[in-house]
Specification:
Number of strands: 18
Helix content: 25-40%
Largest sheet: 5 strands, mixed
Length: 380
């Protein structure tokens, strides 16, 4: 495995960075070009990444023929939980009639089928920065060895089609494999920015497709509830994970007319308290929020204390039922949620919410939620 040693601090931990599939592809392309043009494969190549951090990548599994050569680089995700960590990224370089460097994707590299992505429909899912890196590396090899013809580079990932099922690619309309990605060339562990970029991309694609009204859910629970219980058509749907505030901001910036947020009470009661990143690492506040609204609705001290000790929000709802306070507390919580969402969204985009529990079903709907839900009939 890689000897790459570059670390960053994340919270109290010191975590090792890795390098992207784009860096792997560029390094493999350089190695394959060297093998084709000189007949020899260097043991490793050095890539100067856009982040300014050099990567020395070992070259693996070389093969060649009269007018082509191939080798691979193993993806190193560092300490990031990366679906592509450890997979081999291959580059095959062959002579061609077209001048310069031509780049395409092969086995296990996805193809774009929907507009709004980094590459046009029909192109291999090799983003523009990796394409630049690949082109620069192959052009440098051509200059070093006096090659004035043309070279075609095909990037492949034999495990890519299987690995793609663990990524956003199927939802984004990238079929047949993984994407070759990376704007910096470096994988920074636990990168919130990378995840937020992926979530924004779903909204970007909806905007390009002409959507004006969208449904947003934090994850699978909300999506399933929206589809199976609320009966919504999810042709204009995307996820936001824990990044509810970021999702609202991006949607408003894209000019969407409306956003209907559907989520579990465990997440949306945090939002009612103004918590717009609902990851437990950032904030919780569920019990404090429920206790506050129970107290506002006249709950006795024993009820508030029981809510404070409740392990789950379903347990809290049961306590509210026992005290005869569920309806009042959920109404109070809904009002607070509505205020927080409208404050974040601003006046230009309508925003409403529905929150639920798997045990109890719908627990709250903001005043205009049914109106926005009607914009998403099952046939859409």
């Amino acid at each position: 495995m890689s000897d790459f040693e570059h670390y960053i601090s994340v919270g109290r931990e010191r975590l090792r960075c890795g390098y992207t599939t784009g860096t792997c592809a560029a390094a493999a392309a350089r190695g394959a070009a060297e093998l084709l043009l000189t007949g020899q494969l260097p043991p490793a190549v050095r890539i100067d990444t856009p982040a300014g951090i050099p990567v020395e990548a070992e070259l693996l599994e070389p093969s060649s023929g009269p007018d082509w050569a191939s080798c691979a680089v193993r993806k190193d995700g560092g300490d990031d939980p990366d679906a592509t960590h450890g997979t081999l990224i291959f580059a095959r370089v062959e002579r061609c009639d077209a001048p310069g460097v031509t780049i395409d994707g092969g086995e296990g590299v996805g193809r774009v089928t929907k507009p709004g992505l980094d590459q046009p429909v029909g192109a291999a899912a090799i983003n523009h920065v990796p394409r630049q890196m690949i082109g620069q590396q192959v052009a440098a090899a051509m200059a070093d060895h006096g090659c004035d013809g043309g070279l075609k580079v095909v990037i492949s990932a034999p495990e890519g089609e299987k690995l793609a099922q663990k990524t956003f690619n199927p939802r984004l309309g990238i079929v047949g494999g993984i994407s070759i990605l990376g704007t910096s060339g470096i994988v920074r562990p636990m990168s919130e920015a990378a995840l937020i970029d992926s979530l924004r991309l779903e909204q970007d694609m909806l905007a390009v497709a002409g959507a004006t009204d969208i449904v947003v859910t934090p994850g699978n629970y909300g999506e399933t509830f929206a589809r199976e219980v609320l009966g919504l058509g999810l042709g204009c749907w995307c996820t936001c994970s824990n990044y509810i505030g970021e999702s609202i901001d991006h949607a408003a910036g894209l000019g969407f007319r409306s956003l209907l947020l559907v989520g579990h009470v465990g997440k949306l009661c945090k939002v009612a308290a103004g918590v717009m990143n609902t990851h437990s690492r950032v904030a919780d506040g569920r019990r404090e929020t429920l206790c506050t609204h129970a107290a506002l609705c006249g709950g006795e001290r024993a009820t508030v204390e029981a809510l404070y000790r409740a392990v789950t929000t379903d347990d809290a709802v049961a306590i509210l039922d026992g005290a005869g306070l569920r309806e009042a507390v959920m109404a109070s919580l809904t009002q607070a949620l509505d205020e927080q969402l409208k404050r974040r969204a601003g006046a230009e985009m309508a925003i409403e919410a529905i929150f639920f529990s798997n045990r109890y079903g719908i627990l709250g709907k903001t005043a205009g939620a049914d109106r926005l839900a009607a914009l998403h009939p099952i046939s859409s």
